Amino acid sequence: MPDPAAAVTDENQRPGGLLEIDEAVTGDLATLLAEDARGMVLNLVADLYPADLALLLSRLETEQGQKLLTWLDPARGAEALPELDHDYRTQLLADLPATRLTVLVDALDTDDAADVLADLPEMLAVRVLPRLDDADDLNELLGYGEETAGGIMAAEYVAVPATWSVADVTEEVRRVARMVEEVYSVFVIGEGRVLEGVVSLKKLLLSPAERSIAEIMERDFISVTTNVDQEEAAQVMERYDLVSMPVLDGDGHLVGRITIDDVVDVIRSEAEEDMQLMSGVSGDESPMTSLLKVSRGRLPWLVIGLAGAGLSGLVIGGFEESLEQAVVLATFIPIVTAMGGNAAVQSAAITVQGITSGELWTGDALARVGREAVVAACNGLVLAGLLCSAVAVLGVAHAGPLALTLGLTMLFVVMLASANGALIPFGLQALGIDPASAIGPFVTTLNDILGLTVYFLIASLFYL
Amino acid sequence: MPDPAAAVTDENQRPGGLLEIDEAVTGDLATLLAEDARGMVLNLVADLYPADLALLLSRLETEQGQKLLTWLDPARGAEALPELDHDYRTQLLADLPATRLTVLVDALDTDDAADVLADLPEMLAVRVLPRLDDADDLNELLGYGEETAGGIMAAEYVAVPATWSVADVTEEVRRVARMVEEVYSVFVIGEGRVLEGVVSLKKLLLSPAERSIAEIMERDFISVTTNVDQEEAAQVMERYDLVSMPVLDGDGHLVGRITIDDVVDVIRSEAEEDMQLMSGVSGDESPMTSLLKVSRGRLPWLVIGLAGAGLSGLVIGGFEESLEQAVVLATFIPIVTAMGGNAAVQSAAITVQGITSGELWTGDALARVGREAVVAACNGLVLAGLLCSAVAVLGVAHAGPLALTLGLTMLFVVMLASANGALIPFGLQALGIDPASAIGPFVTTLNDILGLTVYFLIASLFYL
Lengths: 464, 464
What we know:
Two copies of one chain form a homodimer.
Chain A: H1 4-10, H2 23-34, H3 38-45, H4 50-59, H5 62-71, H6 74-80, H7 86-94, H8 98-106, H9 110-119, H10 122-128, H11 135-142, H12 149-152, E1 159-161, H13 166-176, E2 185-189, E3 195-200, H14 201-206, H15 213-216, E4 224-225, H16 230-239, E5 244-248, E6 254-259, H17 260-279, H18 291-318, H19 320-325, H20 328-331, H21 333-357, H22 365-394, H23 399-430, H24 441-462
Parallel strand pairs in A: 1-2, 4-5
Antiparallel strand pairs in A: 2-3, 5-6
Helix pairs in contact in A: 1-2, 4-6, 5-7, 6-8, 9-11, 16-17, 18-24, 21-23, 21-24, 22-23, 23-24
């Protein structure tokens, strides 16, 4: 049997000198953990970056992950925690001895520590919290809504009085260097921690030591308040290309800062949430979620879908007599529903993106519908033409009226569906609902009902 | 008539002191531009951040935008360009005098300048390029694929020899401070620009002036090569929480750097691309794209959808005799297709996210399908129960066999669809196709065909 520790060192080197975490490496690690080969395990993970260590942890059985987590130096183990999937992390930490848990959480930045604590079973969190060094800061952070600027900000930052010199400030940065790992800028505060200005690290580096910090600070800074939605905070930082942004309370007092890595996480998770909304999955499902929770999360959407489809069925049922006279009409039901659904989703997707990115405003709704109608008319005509040709080629009985029915239906359905797709996201936005919900089950169901009604009405006029 | 310039100053102040760009402000600006009130216009836009200026520009008619762009100080106008929608930017710049265009592009960072040039009509780009200060750098940048690390990197960075002292390096940062606006770290290079280490700005600030830079540099840095896909480069920076990452050529020579704002843009645009793929819209459509291009981009997806729906229709046509005997079966066609589609998309969405985020590997495909089958069995049973109850309540003729048919169909269809949804993304990934393509038209069409076949086969067995 080849030596697992040796196997992972040659082939799995990535160009940057990083160990590629793949199935072979995790398999080897699991074997070594099972054999209690502590020295080899620690050697294997010694040079891993936190994100890679987290990936390894997430691929292990919970018990083996816990074993690894107790073997590791607490600072190293803690680094990996923010990178783990929430569900898995809670599972991993819930059975750990409280003392170990305390050490791990203490090694985290306050924003990550608050995150971990919020996910733990309350009994456990309540026991761990008072023992932590940053208990006060954490208590405050835990008071903010999870999806607000207050909820994603950290209490670690560098703040100095406006009277200090550049040399004083540099000395302060040195003093807190270990506590505040990523320093992008220094906040200048007045009485009662009211934020007065911001100095970038570059500016600090390039300014003479005796200069007063008040002279070089930027007074025209961008900030948010704690209650702002995390998505909006992320958009502000993205929009103005900030790497660090102060967070103030309602009275302008500095209470924390958000850094760009948090924003990247927010953008990623909001994009995932949109994708889940579009697909009828509850927003917090991940590949690691327990089966029961998955089933419970998806079922409501399916039931809503069933109800909607039931209405489509009632439309068909209402035209049962027409169908009895010409069963061939049933053949085209999937075409009517699919084309309406596709056209609506296309038009909704672009509208949602425009709204989300701020390119489209509520006042643009009508212009948007107009544009979509023109596109839909073009595409509807092409589709109608294709369907009519198909009918001609297939040589069905009463080909003329059937072709006329299908052609007109296609044109109307695609136009109606596109208009819906363009309009509904604006409506949802106005109601305070995420416009991404418009793509997927809701729009398609509505268009099935409308499309089938149009289809059978036209068929009644021309075909029967 | 109220004075437009006054109107925008009171109500539209956002908390951060920023002017809120909304319909009122753009309307006022358009009026002032039309009246050639240059002083008032420049006053109105004087304190705007680049992103806000870009938003204003994008809401103006092209000619008015061009007017504003020629009135503005070139440096200010240039700042707004990277924030504009590509299509609109090209439109805006294409008619500008070549000298003005040269000045604007010269004021941009090389990565943004390359972006602008790549979008311009080739005739114009070829005329502007040789006149630019950074013509050589730009020629090189334009040679890299648009969606690679080389394509998004900038040629502006601070690089110093390993022999320099901290004081020398600080002096160098000062020297290039105007050219390299965002300095997060300094690159230490050896012979032939081979990258030897990286020094963060914080480290530089905190190190004694006489220390050699080689002593304080981090030798274990993360980098990518120019040919790496932009999405992968973004993932590396996101994964390892980097704000700036060196880009090397094949031989380890430093050629550029990627900064976190570029990564945020990549994450955003990849998320938008996924949403578009899921919705059957060609990847580069935006709300500003011309109608003809929109129609051309969407039509192929609709035609593919039509072909797929046509196959579903053929399945129904194949069971025309069964339908003639019991037209009531047609009523449930939308339910069968909608439920299969919904279940498949739910299961595909989670699988796609797992693959994209690196949580799921190819070896997990079977386990994934197993999980989905269990969830689908639970949900399928509930849906089957609901449908059977509905049939019982409605009191149709032959309620027993119909309920049996519908119940069994629901269970099979949801299970089949969920398995497809879980499996197809892995298949696409293996074929090198973006797994997000699995959600939307493709999966739903396949499940319509499968679902209807199952439905009519079961109906033939039990109902007729």
